[in-house]
Structure formats: C-alpha cells, structure tokens
Amino acid sequence: MTAEADAVEGEGGESAGAGRGGSRKRLVIIGAGVAAALLAVGAGVYFSGILEGGFSSPTSEGVVEQKPVVFYDLPEMTVNLATEGRATFLKVRIALEVADRTSIDRIEPYLPRILDAFQVYLRELRPTDLEGSSGLFRLKEELLRRINTAVYPARVEAVLFKEILVQ
C-alpha cells in the first residue's frame, strides 16, 4: 500500500505544483502588464511636457521663431531608370528650399548644371533604389549633395519632393 500511497501523493503533488507554476505565470503576466502601463503613463507625462513647465502656456521666451524660407520649383523631370527588359520611368517634381530670394538669384544661372547633375544621377537608379522611405531619404540626400556642389558658393537648404511617380 505504500507504493499506492506514494503514487497518489505524487499525483497530488504534481497538481499542486502545476497550480503554483500557473500562479507564477499569472504573476509574471500581471507584473509585465503593470510595468507596461507604468511605462506608457511615464512616456505620456514626459512627452506632454507636464514635468518641464507645468500646465502653464508657453511664453514668448520658449517659442522659437522659424526663419523665413523661399521655395524654388525646378521643371518636371521624366527619366528612364536603369532596368533590364521593360522600360521603367521616373517622373519627379522637385522644389528647392533656400534661405532668401537672393539665393534664388544666385542659383538660377546654374539651372542647366543642376538639371544635368540630376538627370545623370536619376538615370543610374534602379526601381529598387526608390523603395520605402529610406530609399527616398537617400535620394533626397544625394540630390542635395549634388545641387550644393553644382551651385557652390550658393547653398540650398533642402530638396523637397512635390511628386514622385515610378511607372
């Protein structure tokens, strides 16, 4: 009978152990939920700015004035991309952001050089180079680098895409 009692006790011991293991899992899940909730509340408080200045409205000292900028539209460009087989075209409309109107006057004489640099670069692109936001970011950075090289000593602050179509 001792063997049978040990067997019954073993079964009871396993079920009791499973109950403890289940309660541990529950505690871990509840703890993780509480930690996530605290993290979310902390992030909300941090990003809302409550800790920095309370609930008061921003004063004129805290407001940063944005510099006035001027935009210059380049002519629409359509180029065929470097593909094998069926032709793929890129149609792009670009605006340049410059500091002031005098910058545009310094850039306009270099417009043929700018368009040539853009055309040469864009024709070497593959459709996969333009996929996703990272592809467009790299394209913007490369065009900005090329235009600032072409118009030096003038400076372009940013290249802005008004339209991009890959077909």
From TrEMBL:
Function according to Swiss-Prot or TrEMBL: Controls the rotational direction of flagella during chemotaxis.
Coiled coil: none
UniProt membrane topology term: Single-pass membrane protein
Compartments, as annotated in UniProt: Cell inner membrane; Cell membrane
Annotated TM spans: 27-47
Keyword Cell membrane: yes
Keywords (A to Z) from UniProt: Cell inner membrane, Cell membrane, Cell projection, Chemotaxis, Cilium, Flagellar rotation, Flagellum, Membrane, Transmembrane, Transmembrane helix
Name of the featured protein: Flagellar protein FliL
Gene Ontology CC, one term: bacterial-type flagellum basal body
Keyword Transmembrane helix: yes
GO biological process, one term: bacterial-type flagellum-dependent swarming motility
Family per record: Belongs to the FliL family.
